[in-house]
Amino acid sequence: MSLLFVDGWFGPEPGDWQSVWCDRYPGSQRFDQDDWNEPVREDWVTRLDEALAETTEPPVLVAHSLGCLTVLHWLAGGGDRPVRGALFVTPADVEENPEPALAGFAPIPRLALPFPAVVAASANDRWMTPARARSFSGIWGAEFADVGPVGHLTGAHGPWPEGEKLLATLL
């Protein structure tokens, strides 16, 4: 089983939970964006499509923050490469929490996902309220998981074994 990590704004952080998981799950992959600090939706979507083209089997996407929106915009733009499922971790709400650097990722696509997915929302995430995350999970046809007060699950959070339980439902 392969995992493809779709990182968010500012990219990977040393020791973040994605790095831990990438090391733990053989066949996992991460890919780089051309510019982590000033994201351009079309560029990020293109890089995701290129990474998916290089997979040997349909992966489970593990997307974080702006990476979640990258996946959604890829789908909305006609992305049709095979995907087994997705774990959307603390998606960024670029509509309710406008950040000028992320304006190009609005609006958030409202579409039914063509694969199973779980939305993991934090009770104290400054980027999306649990109520909005629950609403979007319903629109997308994804399961909703309240993962408690864990902030935005940045690199400082560490391994995140609770998240691995959510991932296991997609594997």
Account of the protein in words:
It is a single chain. With 171 residues, the protein is α/β, with parallel strands linked by helices. The chain has a single domain, classed as Rossmann fold, CATH 3.40.50. 31% of the residues lie in helices and 15% in strands. The protein contains five helices and six strands, in the order βαβαβαββαβα. The chain has helices at 17-24, 41-53, 66-76, 130-140, 161-170, and strands spanning 3-6, 29-30, 60-64, 85-89, 117-121, 143-146. It is globular. The mean pLDDT is 94.
- Beta-strand percentage range: 5-15%
- Calculate the mean pLDDT score and round it: 94
Strand count, sense and barrel status of the largest sheet are: 6 strands, parallel
Name given to the CATH homologous superfamily: Alpha/Beta hydrolase fold, catalytic domain
**Lateral arrangement of strands in the main beta sheet:** 2-1-3-4-5-6
Named at the architecture level, the CATH assignment is 3-Layer(aba) Sandwich
List the helices and strands and how they pair.
Elements: E1 3-6, H1 17-24, E2 29-30, H2 41-53, E3 60-64, H3 66-76, E4 85-89, E5 117-121, H4 130-140, E6 143-146, H5 161-170
Parallel strand pairs: 1-2, 1-3, 3-4, 4-5, 5-6
Helix pairs in contact: 2-3
Summed up, what is this model?
The protein has 171 residues and is α/β, with parallel strands linked by helices. It is built from 5 helices and 6 strands; from the N terminus they run βαβαβαββαβα. 31% of the residues lie in helices and 15% in strands.
Q: Tags for this entry?
A:
Rossmann fold, single chain, alpha/beta, 171 residues
